[in-house]
Write a structure and sequence with these properties.
The chain is built from 18 helices and four strands. The chain is mainly α and about 475 residues long. It folds into three domains: about 20-110, Fumarase C, Chain B, domain 1; about 115-360, Fumarase C, Chain A, domain 2; about 365-460, Fumarase/aspartase (C-terminal domain) (Ribonucleotide Reductase Protein R1, domain 1). Strands 1-2 form a two-stranded antiparallel ribbon. It has a two-stranded antiparallel sheet with strand order 3-4. A hairpin with a 2-residue loop joins strand 1 (about 155-160) and strand 2. The radius of gyration is 31 Å and the shape is elongated. It starts with 18 loop residues before the first helix and ends with a helix. About 40% of the residues are buried.
Length: about 475
C-alpha cells in the first residue's frame, strides 16, 4: 500500500489520503500568517531542548540558526511557504528538515501541534491587541485635537432622536473618547489573559521528557506558564475575548458612523464629510454619499459574525483538542483585518469632517432645549422640581400652539406662570449657551469641564495614568 508521503504523522497510515481530504484538512492558506510566532516559538523550544540535553547541542544550534534564517527569508519572500503542507507547523518543520537534515527532525521533540498552535494564537492575539490599542490611541488623539477647536461650538444633544439639551461639539466628541478608552481597557485585559505560555503541554497530557517550560516562557516574554495541560491545548477564550472586544469597538464605530450619516444629510447639515471620504452616484449628479461611514457600519455585522462563529464552534467541544478548533483562525484574522482597516480610515475621515457651526447653533436656538434649565432655575428659587417641571411643560405647550420659543413669551405671561418663584433674572435661564456654561460639576459640557477632560485624556494617552 502507498504511504502518506511527506506527512509528519505518516507512520500510522498505510494508504494515502484522498486529495479532497488533504485540501479540506489543510489550513496553510490562512494560518501561514502565523509564521513569525511559529518560528519564534520553535527557536525558544529548541534552545531549551539543547540546554536540557534533550537534543545534542550542535543540533540545537543548527536548528536555531536555520529557523532564524527562515524567519528572515519568509519576511522577504512569503512564497517560500507555498507548497503541499498541511499547516504552518508542518511547513516550517519540513523546510527546516529538508535544509539541515537530522537536526530538523528533532525540533518537534516534547511538543504537539496542539500546544504549538495554542502558543502561536496567544502570541498573535497579544500583538494584535497592541496594534489595535495603538490605532485607538491615535483615534482618541485625533478626536481630542478636534475637540480643542470646538469647546464653544454649541449643538443639540439628543435622546430618542429628539432635541433634549444643549452640549458642545467638543463634549460630543469626548463621549466617544470615553468609549474608545474602555475599548483599550478590554484589549489590555485580553492580552493580560494571554500571558500564560502553553508550550510543553503536548497533545493534551504533557510529556515524560524533562522540559523546562519556565525557560521557554522566559525566552518568549511570558510571565507565567499554563497550569493544566488539558485546558492549555483546548483554550480559545483569548480568541473569543478578542473577538468580543473587537465587536464592541465596531459597535462604537458604527454608532459614531450612524450619527455622521445623519448629521451630514441635507436635513441636518451639521457636518460635511469631505470629498476624500465620500462617493458619488452613477445616476444622480448632485449626490455626495457617506459611503465610508456606511461601510464601517455594515462591516460591524461581519465582526459580530466572527464572534458568533467561534462561540458556536467552541460550545460543544469536549476536552481536549478537536479539529473544529482550526476554525478559530479565519474568524480572528478576519476580525483583526476588518478592525484595523475600519479604525484607520475612520480616523482620517473624522479628522477631515467640516463642522457647520452656524447650523448647529441655529438648531439649538430653534428648540425648547432650555426647558430643563428653566425648571432647574425655579428649583433654585425653592420650587419643588415636579412643580417646576409642570410649570415649564405647560409653557412649552403654549409656545408650541403659538409657534414661538420660550424666550419669546411676554414678560408678564412668564411672571404669571411662574408666580412666587419668578425673579427678573428668570429670562437668563432661557439661554442655552449660558446654561451650558453654568454646568460646572464633573462630566458636564461646560467649556472649563471639557478642557479639563481633554487635558486629562492627553495624559492618559501618553501613559501617565
Amino acid at each position: 500500500m502507498a504511504e502518506n508521503k511527506g506527512k509528519l504523522w505518516a507512520g500510522r497510515f498505510s494508504e494515502e489520503n484522498d486529495r479532497a481530504t488533504d485540501d479540506f484538512n489543510s489550513s496553510l492558506s490562512f494560518d501561514k500568517r502565523l509564521y513569525p510566532y511559529d518560528i519564534t516559538g520553535s527557536v525558544a523550544h529548541v534552545t531549551m531542548l539543547g540546554e536540557q540535553g534533550l537534543i545534542p547541542g550542535e543540533d540545537a544550534k543548527a536548528a536555531v540558526e536555520a529557523l532564524q534564517k527562515l524567519l528572515e527569508e519568509i519576511g522577504e519572500d512569503p512564497k517560500l511557504l507555498d507548497g503541499d503542507y498541511e499547516d504552518i507547523h508542518m511547513a516550517v518543520e519540513a523546510i527546516i528538515t529538508e535544509r539541515i537534515g537530522n537536526p530538523g527532525q528533532r525540533i518537534h521533540t516534547g511538543r504537539s501541534r496542539n500546544d504549538q498552535v495554542a502558543l502561536d494564537m496567544k502570541m498573535y492575539v497579544i500583538d494584535t491587541c497592541d496594534k489595535i490599542i495603538s490605532l485607538l490611541k491615535t483615534l482618541i488623539k485625533t478626536l481630542l485635537e478636534k475637540a480643542k477647536s470646538h469647546t464653544e461650538t454649541i449643538m443639540p444633544g439628543y435622546t430618542h432622536i429628539q432635541k433634549a439639551q444643549a452640549v458642545s461639539y467638543a463634549h460630543y466628541l469626548c463621549a466617544y473618547c470615553e468609549m474608545f478608552t474602555r475599548d483599550i481597557g478590554r484589549l489590555k485585559d485580553t492580552a493580560k489573559r494571554c500571558d500564560e505560555m502553553p508550550l510543553g503541554t503536548g497533545a493534551l497530557a504533557a510529556t515524560t521528557l524533562p522540559l523546562n517550560r519556565e525557560r521557554v516562557a522566559e525566552l518568549l516574554g511570558f510571565s507565567a506558564i499554563s497550569r493544566n495541560s488539558l485546558d492549555a491545548v483546548s483554550d480559545r477564550d483569548h480568541c473569543i475575548e478578542f473577538l468580543s472586544a473587537a465587536s464592541v469597538i465596531m459597535m462604537h464605530l458604527s454608532r459614531f458612523c450612524e450619527e455622521i450619516i445623519w448629521w451630514a444629510s441635507e436635513e441636518y447639515s451639521y457636518i460635511k464629510v469631505t470629498d476624500a471620504y465620500s462617493t458619488g452616484s452613477s445616476m444622480m449628479p448632485q449626490k455626495r454619499n457617506p459611503d465610508v461611514a456606511e461601510l464601517i457600519r455594515g462591516k460591524t455585522g461581519r465582526v459580530y459574525g466572527d464572534l458568533l462563529t467561534l462561540l458556536t464552534v467552541m460550545k460543544g467541544i469536549p476536552l481536549a483538542y478537536n479539529k473544529d478548533m482550526q476554525e478559530d483562525k479565519q474568524a480572528v484574522f478576519d476580525a483583526a483585518d476588518t478592525l484595523e482597516k475600519c479604525i484607520s480610515i475612520f480616523t482620517g475621515m473624522i479628522a477631515a469632517v467640516e463642522v457647520n457651526t452656524p447650523k448647529m447653533k441655529k438648531a439649538v436656538e430653534e428648540s425648547y432645549m432650555d426647558a430643563t434649565e428653566a425648571a432647574e432655575f425655579l428649583v433654585s428659587k425653592g420650587c419643588p422640581f415636579r412643580r417646576a417641571h409642570f410649570i415649564i411643560g405647560k409653557l412649552v405647550g403654549i409656545c408650541e400652539q403659538r409657534g414661538i420659543w420660550l424666550r419669546e413669551l411676554p414678560e408678564q405671561e412668564l411672571k404669571d406662570a411662574v408666580g412666587e418663584y419668578y425673579s427678573t433674572d428668570f429670562r437668563q435661564a432661557l439661554n442655552a449657551e449660558a446654561n451650558m456654561e453654568k454646568k460646572t460639576i464633573p462630566a458636564s459640557p461646560s467649556k472649563a469641564q471639557v478642557e479639563g477632560y481633554i487635558e486629562y485624556m492627553e495624559k492618559f494617552i501618553c501613559g501617565e495614568f
